[in-house]
Amino acid sequence: MFIFNQYRLKALSEASCLHYRKHALVMAVLLFICGTCCLIYPFMAGMYLSYIIGMMFMVCGFYTFYTLYSLVVFRSRHWRSKFVSVIFALAWLLLGFSFVIHPLIGMTSLSLVFSCFFIVGGVSRIVSGFTMRGNAGAITNIIIGVLDLLIAVVWLSLNPEQSYLFTTAFIGVEMIFSAAGFIALRRNLTPAKHKKLNLNDTPKTVE
Prior knowledge:
Elements: H1 6-11, H2 14-40, H3 42-74, H4 79-101, H5 103-109, H6 111-131, H7 138-157, H8 160-188
Helix pairs in contact: 2-3, 2-8, 3-4, 3-5, 3-8, 4-5, 5-8, 6-7, 7-8
């Protein structure tokens, strides 16, 4: 989530504005495509989302093992911290493997965790939107925050079979709103054009 107020926008140089405009356009296009796919193909999008989450968990597990190997080599921590690292690494790997093997069960079991994330994200976006009201992107942040809370409520109220499809659809809608937010950010990142001095406008001296 990007938060830009008028002071930060004015402080950016022309090169930085062009740089962020390109990235905002790329993010808007990707979010719009992913959101549209979630709405059109919710079942397949949910499966791919489960695969991605499982792979991320497995990467976290392997990275934890790599960090643990560094701790063992350099003997920088106590054995209790190493034991806790082993437990977390195994948990990451088992969760990731279960999500990849059983995507339907993985998406259902993760619905509660995602609901908590959406609640925290929704509240933070609404607070940031009211804090920066009157600036660029404030209304978009509030809309996305309300949508996050709506996703959490729907997620917690539905049964596991319904939550799979409805959650994927709501995530697609949020992606489309996020794409609109990046488009609004791109419009406000237009670099200020400096007025060129015309030769005819130069002051003339009178003798």
